[in-house]
Amino acid sequence: MPRAAHVPAATLEPVWVRSLLIGVALAFLALFLFVPLMAVFAEALKKGWDAYIAAILEEDALSAIKLTLITAAIAVPLNLIFGVAASWCIAKFDFRGKSFLLTLIDLPFSVSPVISGLIYVLLFGAQGWFGGWLIEHNIKILFAVPGIVLATIFVTFPFVARELIPLMQSQGSEEEEAALVLGASGWKTFWHVTLPNIKWGLLYGVILCNARAMGEFGAVSVVSGHIRGQTNTIPLQVEILYNEYQFSAAFAVASLLALLALVTLALKSFIEWRLRDTHEQFQEQGS
């Protein structure tokens, strides 16, 4: 007599319980995601497409968009390098201080972004630890692009590492060890063995890191100085326009971040699907 297939406990719940839970989840999504996004686009287009395009192409807005893209273009690759190196060390090796390194990686998740910005003020401000030396050598960190980049790197550096660490730990190191035994160099092993196995998790972490880098407000607000046309990113430009009662322009610029959120959500769903397929393939190979 064949064994009965195992039925997950969740499927044994009454239909009304499942319907209630699904309804609650959809209600929360509608209330906290779809309705706010629709409101942003509705307000952005309230005065028509001409006003919307004019707000996006306004000189200060273009400067904010350019600075945001430059910041993300610097911060994301650096966090990519750090994330791969840190996850490789933690997943593949045992060493003293491993738990401490994990704690440091999680630090930006537990520290307010405003506090992160104030740390850089303490270090590089006029009265900070290195302020006198920077002034003497005419080097600007705060209220300039370097300070914005540094603050963005700090608040975003856990994203890539935190996606790769559990993925690399679950895959183990057998394939890398086999490649090394067969004579492959460390670089070839990483490029032809490790990277193909983590590519979707890596892309997932990069997408989340980029979305956070482009949308960061708190830390960047502290170190930027809010200089129009010079140190304002997109979130800071939205705040300035809103405080000046230019609501349509503020929502028009904010819609760029909303579009980024929608694209990130779509890519996130696609990559999660690919990661699930990859995980199932590893389970089949293991069995």
TrEMBL record:
InterPro entries: CysW_permease (IPR011866), MetI-like (IPR000515), MetI-like_sf (IPR035906), Sulph_transpt2 (IPR005667). It is found in: Cell inner membrane. It comes from the Bacteria. One of its GO terms (cellular component) is plasma membrane. Its main location: membrane. Keywords: Cell inner membrane, Cell membrane, Membrane, Sulfate transport, Transmembrane, Transmembrane helix, Transport. CDD domains: TM_PBP2. GO terms for molecular function: ABC-type sulfate transporter activity. The chain crosses the membrane at residues 20-42, 63-91, 111-134, 141-161, 245-267. The keyword Cell inner membrane applies. Pfam families: BPD_transp_1. Residues 65-268 form the ABC transmembrane type-1 domain. It is a multi-pass membrane protein. Part of the ABC transporter complex CysAWTP (TC 3.A.1.6.1) involved in sulfate/thiosulfate import. Probably responsible for the translocation of the substrate across the membrane. The complex is composed of two ATP-binding proteins (CysA), two transmembrane proteins (CysT and CysW) and a solute-binding protein (CysP). This is Sulfate transport system permease protein CysW.
